[in-house]
């Protein structure tokens, strides 16, 4: 007697509703209905408006600041657990609080470890995410983590640009491994930016390790927040003789006056994904959708097939 695997149910948190709809469409399913009830003091309560008993469910939600985005994901997971869902996968295109992955000075938290434990306590039985700020965050979980790479989207885009004298660059020493991986795939040279910070989000000094004169440079990073590092690196590279500078960053936080900085810089183009909702009409910013990537991986996870082909880097 044959057995047909029942299709999963897909839901989205408020902050990732548009991406959730795109993922569900790519998967070939309807996005499940969730109602968020809000109290006058700001407290809120999600409610699944359909039965999920015994089902595999995917809850899509990036946990970029503010904290209510993380809180909504936790409440959605807890509600699913208490509604007797069989498998609960947290699909987090952007895993927030990941920059606090270690104690870099006394008396500070390791926030990404705390978030990992909270997700598991809330009911997540699996995590699917993309381009963690630090690979070792996977080890903070006791549940399986599928860590996808934005290079799946970015490499074909860079290749179709057909740039002569291509050089891959990292905006800091910490991203050198990522830059070398891209350069190997694209068979290009590498340069590294060395920067010193006076405090968070403020650069006091930057230097280049490598030559960029006569090169078309592509900076690679996992996220762009204030855009201070990227724009300063781009301006420095143009001063040193680069023909053009583009940047590819998976997560577009774009906080404060980041877009204004990008517009006023020598950066020719910033390519990001829609892991975080982006509200801009800037012609310098190109958004690549990660919906098909996540939908494909979710399908493979549900049907217990390999996802190794998605690990380009």
From TrEMBL:
CDD domains reported in the protein's UniProt record: PRTases_typeI
InterPro entries linked: PRib_PP_synth_CS, Pribosyltran_N, PRTase-like, PRTase_dom, Rib-P_diPkinase
Class of enzymatic activity (EC top level): transferase
GO molecular function: ribose phosphate diphosphokinase activity
Residue ranges annotated for the Ribose-phosphate pyrophosphokinase N-terminal domain, each copy included: 9-123
Keywords on record: ATP-binding, Kinase, Magnesium, Metal-binding, Nucleotide biosynthesis, Nucleotide-binding, Transferase
The enzyme's E.C. designation: 2.7.6.1
Protein name per its UniProtKB record: ribose-phosphate diphosphokinase
Organism of derivation: Robiginitalea aurantiaca
């Amino acid at each position: 007697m044959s057995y047909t695997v029942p299709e999963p149910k897909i839901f989205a948190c408020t902050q990732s509703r548009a991406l959730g709809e795109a993922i569900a469409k790519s998967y070939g399913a309807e996005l499940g209905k969730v109602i968020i009830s809000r109290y006058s003091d700001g407290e809120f309560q999600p409610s699944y408006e359909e039965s999920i008993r015994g089902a595999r469910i995917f809850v899509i939600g990036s946990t970029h600041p503010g904290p209510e985005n993380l809180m909504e994901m936790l409440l959605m997971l807890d509600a699913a657990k208490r509604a007797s869902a069989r498998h609960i996968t947290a699909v987090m295109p952007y895993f927030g609080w990941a920059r606090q992955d270690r104690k870099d000075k006394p008396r500070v938290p390791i926030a990404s470890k705390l978030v990992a434990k909270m997700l598991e306590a809330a009911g997540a039985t699996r995590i699917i995410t993309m381009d963690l700020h630090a690979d070792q965050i996977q080890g903070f979980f006791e549940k399986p983590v599928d860590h996808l790479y934005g290079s799946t989207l970015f490499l074909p885009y860079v290749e179709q640009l057909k740039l002569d004298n291509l050089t891959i660059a990292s905006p800091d020493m910490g991203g050198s491994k990522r830059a070398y991986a891209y350069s190997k795939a694209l068979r290009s040279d590498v340069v590294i930016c060395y920067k010193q910070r006076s405090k968070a989000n403020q650069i006091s000094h930057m230097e280049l390790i490598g030559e960029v004169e006569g090169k078309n440079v592509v900076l690679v990073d996992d996220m762009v927040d204030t855009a201070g590092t990227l724009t300063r690196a781009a301006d420095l590279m143009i001063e040193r003789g680069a023909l053009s500078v583009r940047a590819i960053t998976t997560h577009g936080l774009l906080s404060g006056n980041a877009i204004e900085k990008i517009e006023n810089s020598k950066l020719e183009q910033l390519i990001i994904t829609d892991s975080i909702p982006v509200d801009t009409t800037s012609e310098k910013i190109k958004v690549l959708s990660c919906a098909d990537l996540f939908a494909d991986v979710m399908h493979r996870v549900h049907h217990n097939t390999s996802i190794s082909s998605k690990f380009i880097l």
